[in-house]
């Protein structure tokens, strides 16, 4: 079982890494939903964790868009 990501960890990633992370989490969420629908899912708590992880990634991306947090991609240029 994967550990939940923290916003502090996500802030150190680039935009490309964050977008890749969202895709990875959405694929995991799809497989968890599929398992839940077929009755094969044993722990439903992971569904909630993955949804919250996706929200964290989107929050970090939005902070960068609004200029609340400095974008590490901009500092490298």
Number of strands: 0
Helical stretch tally: 4
Q: What is the C-alpha radius of gyration, as a whole number of Å?
A: 14 Å
Order of helices and strands: HHHH
Question: Which descriptors would you attach to this protein?
Answer:
mainly alpha, 77 residues, 71% helix, Ribosomal_uL29, ribosomal protein, Ribosomal_protein_uL29, elongated, Helix Hairpins
Write the layout of secondary structure elements.
Elements lengths: L6 H5 L3 H23 L7 H22 L5 H5 L1
Helix pairs in contact: 2-3
What does this structure look like?
Keywords: Ribonucleoprotein, Ribosomal protein. This is Large ribosomal subunit protein uL29. One of its GO terms (molecular function) is structural constituent of ribosome. The protein has helices spanning 7-11, 15-37, 45-66, 72-76. The chain is elongated and about 45 Å long. With 77 residues, the protein is mainly alpha-helical. The model has no long low-confidence stretch (mean pLDDT 90).
